[in-house]
Structure formats: C-alpha cells, structure tokens
C-alpha cells in the first residue's frame, strides 16, 4: 500500500500576529522540522500565499527556508490554490483565476519557478466551475472530498472528471478523521486500522489541516512523524499516484467540501458550513460580498488582468477585495459548532471598507454597504 498524505497550512489575512506566531511555533515549524529529520517521509502540502507573506512579515523566514529545503530534496510537493482562501464556488470565475494567479506569483517569489501540478480549492470546495478553471490554469489534478464522488471510491485507480478530463483524487474521509482526532496516534493503532490493506496494491489518501498537529492537538506532530516513518507503508506524493495506478475511471463529481455532512448532501446544500440558506447572517454576508465584487469589477478604474493592469486609483480597492473575501468570516457565522462575532465583524468591516474605497462607486452602493454591515453586526448580537 502507498500512503499519500496531504496537509493544508493557512491563516487568514486578518489573523493577529500572536496567533500566527503561536500556531507557527506549535505546529508548522515542528511539522517541517520533523520532515527534515525523517527524510523517508513524503507529503503533499498546500501553503496559501497569504501565510507565506505573514511568515515573512512576522519574522518566520526560517520556516519558509525549511519549505525550500524540503522542495529541493523532493520530499514534498506544493499545490496551487487561491491566495486569500475564498470559497471558490461562491465567487465569479474571473475572481477564481485572479486568486490562483496571485497565489502562483507568491509561490514564485519565495520558491522560484516551482510549478505545482495539483490544485487545492480552499475548504476542498469543489464544483464544476472550479474544475474547469483549474484545468484552464494548467493544473493536472485536484484534490476533492470523498463525498464528491457519486458512488464508492476505489483506491486502486485514479479518476478523471467526465467534462474537463482533469484528474481527481478523493480524500479518504474516515481515516483522515481518525488521524486528526487522535484515534490513530501510534504506528500500531494506524496499522491495526489499515489492516489487510497494507499488503494490497492500492493507495490511502488522507488530507488534514496542518494546525491539527501540535496546535489543536499537542504532541500529534510527533505522532505524525511516527506514522509517516513506518516501514510497512511507503509514503508518496499525490502527483506520483498516476504512474503507480494507471487504471482510469471517468466520473461526474458532486459539489462538496471537506466539512460536508451527509444530511447537508441530502438537502442539496453542499456548502452549508459557509452558505446555509437558513442562516440569516450568512445571507447578509454574501450580499455584502457580492456587492463588493460588483463594485470593484464595475469601476472604470479597474481593468481585466493582473495588478499591473490596474489604474492607481482603483488599485487599493482591488487589493482590499482580494483579502476581504476569505472564507473564515462565513465559517465563524455558522455556529456549527464554533462562533466568533469578532471574526464576523472584521470580515464585514473589510468588505464594507472595500466598497467605500472604490473611487466611483455610487452613493447608494456605499450606503447599502453600510446598511449591510450594520445588519450583520446587529443580527450577530
């Protein structure tokens, strides 16, 4: 059996330095150091560009250097993603492309001409538009939630999207949960759980938040290294799976995220943690988000393309929008089970300020932004 393990490193652009410092020390630095100390361990990583910038800003350049060392050793691969971690199915395709381009530029800044083969949509939020854009942007594969598969996933083959032809790797949900929850914290427990699969010609694909290891669960960073170093299991990068499993099956995946619950799938609300039709705050948040995107994109000061194509008066609003559509604000409004009025307010404030910064936004648009902001906060209280 081969094991392809995926870890996701990310902090929102609004995160306070104290938390970036703490999570970096308790988790990211320890995981990367552990990988350097265990050269036989191989993992696929996503590090959103915003976190790389936060590391540089807050004096964690050694962490960036460790990532570079692991890349040079071909012990890890990085995926492409959206720099500021928006929920991609909820934003226009042009905004998706822009976020991917911003992330690619950030990876190039820190790691040269490294070209990721795979794509991680933030929150593993997948739909047909995301697949189409990822394919157009040159990625060869996407990692998706197991529940995106319309049937039962077989891990002795790879899958391709029927429409775009892009390769899909589905996260094995149960084993991922058992690892991140601490149930498989030793090599013996892990091997007992895998059972007879360890001698079969198939692969295990797990995917988890990197903060799990050392921050959310102290000591799990050491446990992870123990699991990745087991002689009975060969660790591989996700991009290496196709050469080992040539059988291909076409599928038409369903929209999903890695937080999707069966009950939400039955209700046909695949993004419920971020966009629940019964959640009044989230409805207001998305109205404000759509208003901000429309205000920036319709401005005469904005032009299609990258930052270099923007006229200076519109540049500030454009950059503010890039940061303001991160997914965290909607998640913290879900109360499933977590809740943070501070994160809700901060997200709404940034969206409002984006609109107010657009030089030629209509007065009624700016007033609507203020009204929506006020409604979000008062509803939260």
From TrEMBL:
Protein name (database record): Glycoside hydrolase family 57 N-terminal domain-containing protein
SUPFAM superfamilies recorded: Glycoside hydrolase/deacetylase
InterPro entries named in the record: GH57_Enzymes, Glyco_hydro/deAcase_b/a-brl, Glyco_hydro_57_N
Lineage: Bacteria, Katanobacteria
Presence of keyword Transport: no
Molecular-function GO terms, alphabetical: catalytic activity
A single GO BP: carbohydrate metabolic process
Domain Glycoside hydrolase family 57 N-terminal: start-end pairs: 22-248
Protein family per UniProt: Belongs to the glycosyl hydrolase 57 family.
Residues passing through the membrane, by range: none
Key words of the record: Carbohydrate metabolism
């Amino acid at each position: 059996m081969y094991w392809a393990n995926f870890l996701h490193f990310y902090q929102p652009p609004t995160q306070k330095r104290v938390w970036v410092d703490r999570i970096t020390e308790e988790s990211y630095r320890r995981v990367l150091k552990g990988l350097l100390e265990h050269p036989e361990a191989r993992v696929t990583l996503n590090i959103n560009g915003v976190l790389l910038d936060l590391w540089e800003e807050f004096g964690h350049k050694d962490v960036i250097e460790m990532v570079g060392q692991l890349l040079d050793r071909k012990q890890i691969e990085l995926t492409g993603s959206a720099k500021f971690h928006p929920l991609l199915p909820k934003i226009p395709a042009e905004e998706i492309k822009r976020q991917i381009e911003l992330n690619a530029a950030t990876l190039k800044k820190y790691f040269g001409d490294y070209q990721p083969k795979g794509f991680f949509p933030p929150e593993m939020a997948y739909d047909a538009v995301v697949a189409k854009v990822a394919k157009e942007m040159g990625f060869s594969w996407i990692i998706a939630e197991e529940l995106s598969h319309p049937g039962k996933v077989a891990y002795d083959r790879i899958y391709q999207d029927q429409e775009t032809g892009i390769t899909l790797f589905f996260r094995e949900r149960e084993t991922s949960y058992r690892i991140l929850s601490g149930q498989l914290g030793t090599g013996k427990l892990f091997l007992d759980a895998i059972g007879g699969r360890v001698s079969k010609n198939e692969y295990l694909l797990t995917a988890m938040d990197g903060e799990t290891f050392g921050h959310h669960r102290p000591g799990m960073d050491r446990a992870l290294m123990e699991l990745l170093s087991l002689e009975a299991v060969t660790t591989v990068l996700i991009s290496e799976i196709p050469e080992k499993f040539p059988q291909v099956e076409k599928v038409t995946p369903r929209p999903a995220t890695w937080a999707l619950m069966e009950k939400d799938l039955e209700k046909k609300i695949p993004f419920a943690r971020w966009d629940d039709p019964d959640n009044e705050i989230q409805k207001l948040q998305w109205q404000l988000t759509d208003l901000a995107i429309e205000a920036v994109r319709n401005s005469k000061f904005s032009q299609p393309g990258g930052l270099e194509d923007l006229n200076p008066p519109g540049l500030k609003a454009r950059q503010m929008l890039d940061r303001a559509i991160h997914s965290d604000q909607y998640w913290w409004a879900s109360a499933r089970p977590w809740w943070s009025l501070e994160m809700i307010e901060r997200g709404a404030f940034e969206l409002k300020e984006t609109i107010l910064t657009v030089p030629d936004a209509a007065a009624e648009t700016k007033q609507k932004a203020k009204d929506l902001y006020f409604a979000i906060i008062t509803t939260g209280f």
